[in-house]
Amino acid sequence: MTSVGVPAEDTPAIVNRLKRAQGQIGAVVRMLEEGRDCREVLPQLAAVNKALDRAGFAMVASSLRECTTHPEAHDKADLAELEKLFLSLA
Question: Where are the chain's structural domains?
Fold first, then answer.
């Protein structure tokens, strides 16, 4: 079984998503420290969750694309592992 990683060409976009989420988390922390109302904080927290989910799904999609584009480099165990990772995001 080979490793199923994120192709190098997809990494910058995923890292960018995660950095945006990191900034959003910092904003949520500041809002809490400032004592902002939960009606302001919770939508921002939901946005962070969505951003992290999107990064995870982008990673799985990229890896699936790699497996289907280069099937000779991957076996059924790789696809099963990706399926398990995908379901862990749900």
Answer: 11-88
C-alpha distances out from residue 17 to 25, 64, 76, 88, Å: 12, 19, 29, 19
Q: Compute CA 72 distance to the chain's CA centroid, rounded to the nearest angstrom.
A: 26
CA 22-48-11 angle, 5° bins: 55
Q: How confident is the model at residue 2 (pLDDT cuts 50, 70, 90)?
A: low
CA 30 – CA 80 distance, rounded (Å):
41
The span from the CA of 61 to the CA of 42, in Å, is: 28
Distance, in Å, from the CA atom of 51 to the CA atom of 20, rounded to the nearest integer, reads 8
Residue 4 pLDDT more than 70? no
Using alpha carbons, select from 73, 90, 65 the residue that is nearest to residue 9: 65
Q: What fold is seen in the domain 11-88?
A: Methane Monooxygenase Hydroxylase; Chain G, domain 1 (1.20.58)
